[in-house]
Amino acid sequence: MYGTIPPTNSAPVPTQVSYTMDNSTPMMYVTPTTDDVQYNQLFFQYFTLDATIPHTLVVTNIAQDAQFYVDYVGIVLPPT
Questions:
Q1: At the top level of its lineage, which domain of life is listed (predicted)?
Q2: pLDDT on residue 47
Q3: Cβ-contact 48, 21 below 8 angstroms
Q4: In what order do the strands lie in the sheet with 57-61?
Q5: I need a surface site. Which of 13, 44, 56, 80 has the fewest CB within 10 A?
Q6: Nearest-CA neighbor of 37 among 62, 12, 3?
Q7: Across the strands, what pairs with 54?
């Protein structure tokens, strides 16, 4: 999952996001401080998925009043 990190002076608090894949242990991402907006930044990736079964990704914006921008989600399937 890729997203945008807003400049620190425009965001009241850093974005803190929890990513949980298939009820596994949550993975946290906290945006770094930056003077300029940063687009297409990697927020989350997961490598060990079985392509033959459905999966669930739960994304939770934890920080109250934090800005959270998703640019896109990419899914790559293994060759058949």
A1: Eukaryota
A2: 85
A3: no
A4: 27-30, 16-21, 57-61
A5: 80
A6: 3
A7: none
